Structure formats: C-alpha cells, structure tokens
Amino acid sequence: MKLTIVTPLAIVVEQEIDSLRAEDASGSFGILSHHAPFLTSLTLSILSWRVANAERFCAVRGGVLTVADGGDIEIATREAVVGENLATLDADVLARFQSDAEEEKTEHVENVRLQLNAIRQMISRLHRSANTGEFR
C-alpha cells in the first residue's frame, strides 16, 4: 500500500508502507492493506506508519485522509513535519502547531469583530438617513 502526504507546497512523504495509525475527531484508528475505501478529517496529531520493522512519524496540522479502492492512502494537510523521534515531534512540532492554531482562532475572532462593527456603522447611518428622505 502506498502512502502519500502532501501540503500546498510539497509532497512530504511518498512511499510503500505496511500499516498506518492516524487520529480523527472520533479517536485513533489503524489502516492495513486492502482496507475498504475511507474518507475522514484528521485532527492536529501525529501519524505513524510501519515500513518493514521501522516506524516513522509525521506531525500534521489537520487535513483529509483518503483510502482508495486499492488501499492507497492519500493525506492532504496544511502543514506536515516528518521525524524519526516521536518525543521531539510531540514536544516541539505539535506544540507549535497548537499555538499557531490558537493564534488563527484569535485572528478570526478579531476579524469577525471588525466586520460586525463595520456592519453596525452602516446600519446606523442607513437608519439616520431613512427619515430625511435621502437615498445615500
């Protein structure tokens, strides 16, 4: 079975594997060869896969996992970092991904506030000019 992990900028992993472990909102799951077709949304997590007796890891910042009819696995994610050491990925990369996600949430909230304030100002100006018979 072939594993392909892609980001918007690069193909991060493309290799034959024996098995894969991943995590979505419902929890952790595994995929072996001849798996049924499958589609899920990944959480911010660390993927692991086996090639012969070696285990490899990749921290992903969410994404979509697809298992095709032939058992090939494709993962599209915003950001991915491959590593040999699980402790390093867990401590450094996953922590950075989580802080980036928190910053994005904060920025989103601020953008929504700005948009709502702009809408409120437009509505208040429309209400003032509605009584005067002006169009603008």
From TrEMBL:
Coiled-coil region: none
InterPro entries listed in its UniProt record: Alt_ATP_synth_F1_esu, ATP_synth_F1_dsu/esu, ATP_synth_F1_dsu/esu_N, ATPsynth_dsu/esu_N
Domain ATP synthase F1 complex delta/epsilon subunit N-terminal: start-end pairs: 1-80
CDD domains attached to this UniProt entry: F1-ATPase_delta (cd12152)
Compartment(s) of residence: Cell membrane; Endomembrane system
Keyword entries, A-Z: ATP synthesis, Cell membrane, CF(1), Hydrogen ion transport, Ion transport, Membrane, Transport
Membrane topology listed for this record: Peripheral membrane protein
HAMAP family reported for this sequence: ATP_synth_epsil_bac (MF_00530)
Assembly and oligomerization: F-type ATPases have 2 components, CF(1) - the catalytic core - and CF(0) - the membrane proton channel. CF(1) has five subunits: alpha(3), beta(3), gamma(1), delta(1), epsilon(1). CF(0) has three main subunits: a, b and c.
Family: Belongs to the ATPase epsilon chain family.
Function: Produces ATP from ADP in the presence of a proton gradient across the membrane.
Name the record gives this protein: ATP synthase epsilon chain
Organism listed in the record: Vreelandella neptunia
Source organism phylogeny: Bacteria, Pseudomonadati, Pseudomonadota, Gammaproteobacteria, Oceanospirillales
Gene: atpC
